Amino acid sequence: MAIFLNDFIVLLKTLIKYKMKTKHINLGKTSLVFLMLVFVSKIAVSQIDTTAAAKPDTTAPKEEKKKSSGFIAYGGVTFNQMNMPSQAQYESNSKTGWALGIAYRRGKFFYWQVGARFNNAIYGVKDTSVTQIGSGNSLTVTDIDIPINVGLNLLSVTGKLLGLRVYLGAVPAFVTGVSNDNNSTLNKNNSNGFNFYGQGGIGVDVLFLSIDAGYNYGFSDVFTNIESKPGQIFVNLGFRF
User: Fold this and answer.
1) Alpha-carbon radius of gyration of the chain
2) Could you please report the per-residue DSSP string of 23-81?
3) Could you report the average pLDDT of every consecutive run of 10 residues in the chain (241 residues)?
4) Is 159 exposed, middle or buried (CB count within 10 Å of its CB: 0-12, 13-18, 19+)?
5) Which has the least CB within 10 A, 27, 147, 159, 220?
6) CB distance 216 to 234 below 8 Å
7) CATH of domain 69-240
């Protein structure tokens, strides 16, 4: 402000001297008005600049915290057995199968996970009423599962470096095939096309690896004509990406 005032005084003195030399009053009035406009405009510009610099931009949206999420591709072994307590005709024991799947997981401390799995479950089921071919008693049931889980990551503060999870879930399953290596009458024609499992498990995440172990229990019978609720222990190794 002081600089502009000094400039104004200097210019005013110059104008008065010029006026005394030329003795043109109209030119002096015009020049004085012009000078005042220049002076006022300089003050206005300076105030606009300082005001703009003083006010920070508070309208910028705050960056939202990104939730932890990703995909897991996995495979594993399963240990399967049918619950046939009242069936004198059949003998049941545990057999080892396998499964492959992919899942999407989202969340940190509280998380949910949904995916699809191909389940090749092998059961030890022997029909004692028919003549066996050799000593085979394996019955294979294949289905497409849709595991839906919710759980807690007890080590969520470590990010993606290390995780310790517990979870519960539901698994709708759609039967795609039934086969056996004996003369058993159990086949795709007398199987239920749909089953519903309850699921519980624990998991450990280390960097890009994911290890899970748990148990599935089927609420429906695998076959329509006998009591045959399935149970399955699973151990999976997955890769996170």
Assistant:
1) 41
2) --HHHHHHHHHHHHHHHHHHHHHHHHHHHHHHS----SPPPPPPPPEEEEEEEEEEEEE
3) 56 57 49 52 51 50 61 98 80 93 96 98 84 70 97 91 96 94 78 95 96 96 90 97 92
4) exposed
5) 159
6) yes
7) 2.40.160.20
